[in-house]
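To illustrate the input format used throughout this study, we show a single complete record. The first block contains the structure-token representation of the backbone; no residue identities are included at this stage. The design step must infer an amino acid for every position from geometry alone.
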């Protein structure tokens, strides 16, 4: 009897579960394989109280040599995206796209793919949906003017506007359809809004899309572009026409930090002539605010112009430096951003400085004064440590060579700047200031974050017929973006003559964005960002975002700059001239980390929303400077 009982006990032990609900067990290891099911699932989002939602249940099975076992309770199940949450083996998705689901138990793992689809529509009040769903008249073909084809948007840019040129003035209602593969087919039905500049654009139809919808567009864009099609019709459904599609994409990498830029007065701005404004991308990214106007800046000596410009901001956003009164007198102020107060101001009889760049910790600054770079303390003393910071420039190119446009990289590892030689043909009083750098070439020097640690080396040598200027170094120290303009013109028509030259590096109409590795190499033109159809739009003063992400397996960066290109059907282009005021734009640059780009890695540029209170008389927005944070104003 004892023998029989012993044999029965052994049999029970052999059939006992190999894992308990705590995920332990005495057979943990590789004596089984794991399966996550379903391995492939498709679910469709449905409207929910807080957006869209769909669920999928999962089961995890351990396959042993002699049996299978449900180990769902013991396994850890996760998704590769935060828009898919998993609790008790139930996945809840809120955003269209394709996601990887993983299960882990002991040293074993299993994978599955979840395809989340969004099919539906949003119908605005007063819109006859059936009229827009009919058969379009082939003679009626509206045109999409914005977004630009080939653009890449960040997930947090809002609002998103679609601009369509009517094919007939009677068209007053619209259907905007977004499609991407099998995961997205969504239509917005809305009433057309008129252009804010109706005199210039009398037949515009502008449709504003719900900002929350950007998450759906970013979800599907990781795999495929989004096709945008617009239908327009009269209120009763007649004159129905359909546009050709435009493709764009959205990234889950947001704009971040603070963007400070220089602005000149527009219609209605009677309190200032110039100002520094800023965006807070970690807060409300839909509109900027004036940070400091010329009227509120330290007063310049009597008889001088009360204006501010050539600003720089420390990496952490706590310190602001700018010149006052214009570049010729070179008055200067260092500001405490949070308290909106001057830490130090210089109104000497001799010019003090026109341009600044800060060390990564903000304790030091390199200032430029009439082509001389100086290293100094970024505090109330403004004490100078080193004058003529890079003597090797003059040693290599002669005593007339001057330096300007300094930029200290966010990591502190490099300092970039420009050198040039004023010629007899230059207007010497202007060109000596360092604003203008005809025949500019770009240098780069190693740094320990407090000072240069080696002699500067030429990164982009001087070339005949062009000038290179305004360098900016990416947050990871890998890339330099800069401007290059052509001496073939066109020249500016500025009546005052300041920066009127075709290639003096100041507001040049032919300014184009270029990219080069910090380690050197052949520069690549950012053709898509420049606007390949109309490149003569003054693409000026490029600056990298304070961080970067990934998109479709590539390193994704944002570059902000000013440009005179058209903003859809709201602002006309200044192509080939300087008669219109520039606006702020930004473009994505996606680079394969395994090799330097030999072709253009940029996307079409996107307009920053909310820049102007009046489109009939817009502000002139220039020289963006990006920081890791827009500090809170006290």
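Output of the design step:
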């Amino acid at each position: 009897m004892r023998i029989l009982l012993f044999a029965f006990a052994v049999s029970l032990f052999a059939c006992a579960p190999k894992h308990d609900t705590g995920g332990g067990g005495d057979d943990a290891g590789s004596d089984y394989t794991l399966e996550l099911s379903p391995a492939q699932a498709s679910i469709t989002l449905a409207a929910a109280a807080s957006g869209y939602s769909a669920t999928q249940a999962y089961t995890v099975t351990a396959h042993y040599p002699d049996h299978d076992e449900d180990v769902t309770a013991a396994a850890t199940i996760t998704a590769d995206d935060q828009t898919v949450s998993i609790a008790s083996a139930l996945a809840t998705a809120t955003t269209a796209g394709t996601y990887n689901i993983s299960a882990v138990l002991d040293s074993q793992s299993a994978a599955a793919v979840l395809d989340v689809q969004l099919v539906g529509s949003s119908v605005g009040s007063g819109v006859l949906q059936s009229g827009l769903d009919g058969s379009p008249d082939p003679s009626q073909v509206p045109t999409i003017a914005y977004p630009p084809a080939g653009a890449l948007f960040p997930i947090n840019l809002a609002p998103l506007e679609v601009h369509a040129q009517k094919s007939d003035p009677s068209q007053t209602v619209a259907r905007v359809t977004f499609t991407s593969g099998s995961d997205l087919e969504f239509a917005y039905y809305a009433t057309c809004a008129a252009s804010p500049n109706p005199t210039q654009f009398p037949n515009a139809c502008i449709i504003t899309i719900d900002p929350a919808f950007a998450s759906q567009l970013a979800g599907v864009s990781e795999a495929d572009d989004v096709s945008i099609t617009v239908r327009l019709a009269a209120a009763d459904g007649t004159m129905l026409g359909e546009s050709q599609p435009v493709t764009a994409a959205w990234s889950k990498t947001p704009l971040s930090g603070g963007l400070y830029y220089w602005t000149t007065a527009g219609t209605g701005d009677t309190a200032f002539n110039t100002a520094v404004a800023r965006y807070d991308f970690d807060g409300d990214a839909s509109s900027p605010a004036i940070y400091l106007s010329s009227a509120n800046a330290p007063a310049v000596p009597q008889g001088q112009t009360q204006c501010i410009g050539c600003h720089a901001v420390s990496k952490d956003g706590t310190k602001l430096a700018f010149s006052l009164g214009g570049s010729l007198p070179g008055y200067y102020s260092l500001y405490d951003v949070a308290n909106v107060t001057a830490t130090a101001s210089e109104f000497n009889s001799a010019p003090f400085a026109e341009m600044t760049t800060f060390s990564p910790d903000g304790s030091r600054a390199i200032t430029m004064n009439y082509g001389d770079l100086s290293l100094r303390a970024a505090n109330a003393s403004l004490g100078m440590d080193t004058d003529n910071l890079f003597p090797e420039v003059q040693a290599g190119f002669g005593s007339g060579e001057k330096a300007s446009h300094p930029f200290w990289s966010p990591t502190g590892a490099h300092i970039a700047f420009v050198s040039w030689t004023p010629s007899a043909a230059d207007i010497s009083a202007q060109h000596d200031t360092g604003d203008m750098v005809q025949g500019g070439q770009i240098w780069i020097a190693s740094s320990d974050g407090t000072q240069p640690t080696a002699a500067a080396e030429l990164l982009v040598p001087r070339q005949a017929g062009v000038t290179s200027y305004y360098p900016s170094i990416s947050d990871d120290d890998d890339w330099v973006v800069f401007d290059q303009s052509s001496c073939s013109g066109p020249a500016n028509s500025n009546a005052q003559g300041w920066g009127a030259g075709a290639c003096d590096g100041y507001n040049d109409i032919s300014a184009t964005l270029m990219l080069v590795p910090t380690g050197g190499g052949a520069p690549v033109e950012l053709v898509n960002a420049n606007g390949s159809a109309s490149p003569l739009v003054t693409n000026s003063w490029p600056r990298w975002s304070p961080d970067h992400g990934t998109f479709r397996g590539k390193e994704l960066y944002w570059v902000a700059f000013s440009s005179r290109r058209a903003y859809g059907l709201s602002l006309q282009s200044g192509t080939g001239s300087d008669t219109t005021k520039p606006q702020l734009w930004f473009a994505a640059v996606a680079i394969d980390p395994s090799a330097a780009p030999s072709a253009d890695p940029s996307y079409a540029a996107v307009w920053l929303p909310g820049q102007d209170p009046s489109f009939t008389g817009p502000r002139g927005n220039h020289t963006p400077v990006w920081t890791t944070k827009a500090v809170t104003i006290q």
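Structural context for interpreting the output: The CA atoms of residues 239 and 444 lie 59 Å apart. The two ends are 87 Å apart (CA to CA).
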